[in-house]
C-alpha cells in the first residue's frame, strides 16, 4: 500500500514544518520568496506546478550543506508531523497490516526529511526524492541521486521498488490527493483519491475510484 504525504497522510503541507526546522538548524537563512503563499494555495487547492518548481530547486539550494545536519533537523520535527496525520490513517494501516501488505510512503519530499517521520509512524519503507552527496558521504552536491519522484517520476520509482520487492502493482493500493499522481493511481489495482484536488475529484468520479 503506497501513501502520498501532503494532504493525504497529513492534513496539509509538511513544507512549513520542515522549513521552520531547517531555519532553526541554520540550514536555511530565510524563507524563499512566495513560499508562504504557495503553501496556502497548496493547502487549499492541492499540488501546483509552481510548488513543484520550488521543490526541484531545493536540491540545488542544499548544495554544500551537511546531510547529517538535515537529518537531525528532520528528526526534531518527526513527532510534530505524526501529530498531523489524518485520523483515518491508523485504521487503514491496520487493515493492510492484517493482510500482510507492506506500508510504503511514496512522496516527492526528500528522503532525508521524511525518513524519521516514516520510521516513527511504523511504515515499512520510503520512496522519495534523494539528494546526491559527495565523496565524503555527507555534503550535498546540489544534484539528485535517482529520479525526482513526482508524477511519472514517482510511478517509475514505485515500479522499481515493486520489482525489487516482488510486489504486483495490480494487487496493490495507492492513496493520493493529487491529479499529478494519476499515473501511479492508474497503475495499481486499488486506487484511492484522498482529499482530492478538483481535477483528481473529476477523474476519480469518472474512473469510479473510491474518494
How would you describe this structure to a colleague?
This protein has 211 residues and is of the alpha/beta class. Helices cover 50% and strands 14% of the residues. It is built from ten helices and seven strands. The chain has helices spanning 5-9, 15-24, 35-45, 49-61, 67-82, 89-98, 111-121, 152-164, 182-187, 198-207, and strands at 2-3, 104-110, 125-129, 131-133, 140-144, 173-176, 190-193. A five-stranded parallel sheet has the order 3-2-1-6-7, sandwiched between helices. A two-stranded antiparallel sheet has the order 4-5. The longest helix is centred in the middle third of the chain and has 16 residues, at 67-82. The radius of gyration is 17 Å and the shape is globular. The mean pLDDT is 89.
Order of helices and strands: EHHHHHHEHEEEHEHEH
Percentage beta strand: 5-15%
Radius of gyration: 17 Å
In DSSP terms (H or I, runs of 4 or more residues), the helix count works out at: 10
Task: Round the mean pLDDT to the nearest integer and report it.
Answer: 89
Spans of at least 5 consecutive residues whose pLDDT stays below 50 are: none
What shape does the CA trace take?
globular
The biggest beta sheet reads: 5 strands, parallel
Helix content range of the residues, please?
40-55%
Structural class: alpha/beta
How far the N terminus sits from the C terminus, by CA atoms, comes to 16 Å
Widest sheet: strand ordering = 3-2-1-6-7
- Count of individual beta strands: 7
